[in-house]
What does this fold into?
Amino acid sequence: YAGHEKIGIRETLDFPAGKPSAATVLKADAKINNSEVRLVTGKVVIKGSVEICTLYVSEDNTIEYMEHEIPFTEVLDAEGVSEGCMCDLETEIGQVDFSLRADSDGDMRLLDINILADAGISVSQNTGMSAVDDCFCSEYELRCETVPLEADILAGTGKAQEALRASVSLPE
It folds into this structure.
């Protein structure tokens, strides 16, 4: 199985305590973190979280910043998929829409967010094959038939992670 699926994530975010109410939202960026995939018979289960960073102007005209994390789970139908298969997943944020609205007190402290992400899924399965590579018989005439075979070769799978730490000096 291979394909691209759309994942829709909708959430209403509250402003963190201590942050002022917003006059206007300048920008909201989203990034998918910690996505993992699990295969069940006929289905692909994608779990992960979306990190949202929002830049806004407060009612007292200061620029403010806040972060939110939205967990998500998406179950996709995938014919022919089973638990023994291997899966490669690539997720990418396609579109982020947001709108500011008032809470029950009338303060602009709610952010409705709608995210459309694209999940590229490629599922493969190891298949064992046997082949005769040498054949002879002294008593009978042998006729060997050959069939061309195309095989994709997977060199390896794995994950890597690296942490970078550095100090930055800024001029006065």
The two ends are 57 Å apart (CA to CA). DSSP finds no helices and six strands in the chain. The mean pLDDT is 82. The longest strand covers residues 22-40.
